[in-house]
């Protein structure tokens, strides 16, 4: 994770009317801006100041010890304690979010990937295919702009944008404020598109039912081995951009095998958000999972 990372201030869109899809009624009038202070730290990585060791193959490993970074003026023990405090506080907010989602039968997913994997295109395609059968809302996370939230609204779903600024991931506190503003309907699906990053989001529970990691076939079969934490934390891997496979030297079987080495319980779907190939399986999983959770909420 981003040990005592550089995440600073996050801003959530204050105009709730902008969360509405075109033609969607029900915008509220109590508009206000949220500015949330995530864990402030001045230092991140200082390449000339951290402990490391050299492997036999010549690789330099900086993250094998108890912290992996130095922060001027802070001992390793203090760094670890700060990190534990951050995660503990986040887990408390995540528990609040999860309780809200479960009580209201809201099926929440944390969608994670590297930048450019096609997360937003995947969500847009799913929204268009499911919008007549189930209500879908979206929380969008990016460092800057509301471009992706605008795309989601054009597809027919309500969306709210979180801009993390220097932050490299969403946290449960941000998501808690966003879901309060978005007010997702009971029995709906909430898709949380995290900031494009395969490292830091792995450590931060948002209160979701599942993490879904999206991997583009343009990224290489060894990505699960290079970034194991995010694949170990996920329940579903979506191999996106399958329409490009005829033009690439990409081994789907090897990629899945590598992912299973990291996480033997990881399920994989091969899809193309552009062509629609494989999307029926993803949409069926979304719809069935949401229906199951909604039924449980009614029984409870």
Automatic annotation (TrEMBL):
GO biological process: protein maturation
Ranges of compositional bias, category Basic and acidic residues: 16-33, 40-58
Residue ranges of every copy of the CobW/HypB/UreG nucleotide-binding domain listed in the record: 109-265
Keywords: GTP-binding, Hydrolase, Metal-binding, Nickel, Nucleotide-binding, Zinc
Domain of life of the native organism: Bacteria
Molecular function, one GO term: GTPase activity
A matching Pfam family: cobW
Region (Disordered): 16-58
SUPFAM superfamilies: P-loop containing nucleoside triphosphate hydrolases (SSF52540)
Family that this chain belongs to: Belongs to the SIMIBI class G3E GTPase family. HypB/HupM subfamily.
Xref: NCBIfam families: hypB
UniProt name for this protein: Hydrogenase maturation factor HypB
Species: Mesorhizobium amorphae CCNWGS0123
């Amino acid at each position: 994770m981003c040990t005592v990372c550089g995440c600073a201030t996050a801003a959530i869109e204050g105009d709730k009317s902008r969360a509405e899809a075109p033609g969607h009624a029900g915008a509220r009038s109590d508009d206000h801006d949220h500015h949330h202070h995530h864990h402030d730290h001045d230092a991140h990585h200082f390449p000339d100041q951290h402990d490391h060791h050299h492997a036999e193959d010549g690789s330099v490993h900086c993250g094998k010890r108890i912290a992996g970074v130095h922060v001027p003026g802070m001992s390793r023990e203090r760094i670890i304690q700060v990190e534990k405090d951050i995660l503990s506080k986040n887990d408390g907010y995540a528990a609040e979010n999860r309780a809200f989602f479960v009580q209201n039968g809201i099926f929440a997913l944390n969608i994670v990937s590297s930048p450019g994997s096609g997360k937003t295109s995947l969500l847009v395609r799913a929204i268009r295919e499911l919008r007549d059968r189930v209500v879908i809302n979206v929380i969008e996370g990016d460092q800057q702009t509301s471009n992706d939230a605008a795309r989601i609204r054009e597809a027919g779903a309500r969306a709210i944008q979180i801009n993390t600024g220097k932050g490299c991931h969403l946290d449960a506190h941000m998501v808690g404020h966003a879901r309060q503003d978005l007010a997702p309907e009971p029995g709906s699906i909430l898709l949380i598109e995290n900031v494009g990053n395969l490292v830091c989001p792995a450590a931060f529970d948002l209160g979701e039912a599942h993490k879904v990691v999206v991997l583009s076939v343009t990224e290489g079969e060894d990505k699960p081995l290079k970034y194991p934490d995010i694949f170990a934390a996920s329940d579903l891997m979506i191999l996106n951009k399958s329409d490009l496979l005829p033009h690439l030297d990409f081994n789907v079987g090897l990629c899945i095998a590598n992912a299973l080495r990291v996480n033997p319980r990881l399920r994989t779907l091969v899809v193309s958000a552009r062509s629609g190939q494989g999307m029926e399986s993803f949409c069926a999983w979304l719809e069935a999972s949401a229906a199951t959770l909604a039924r449980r909420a009614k029984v409870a």
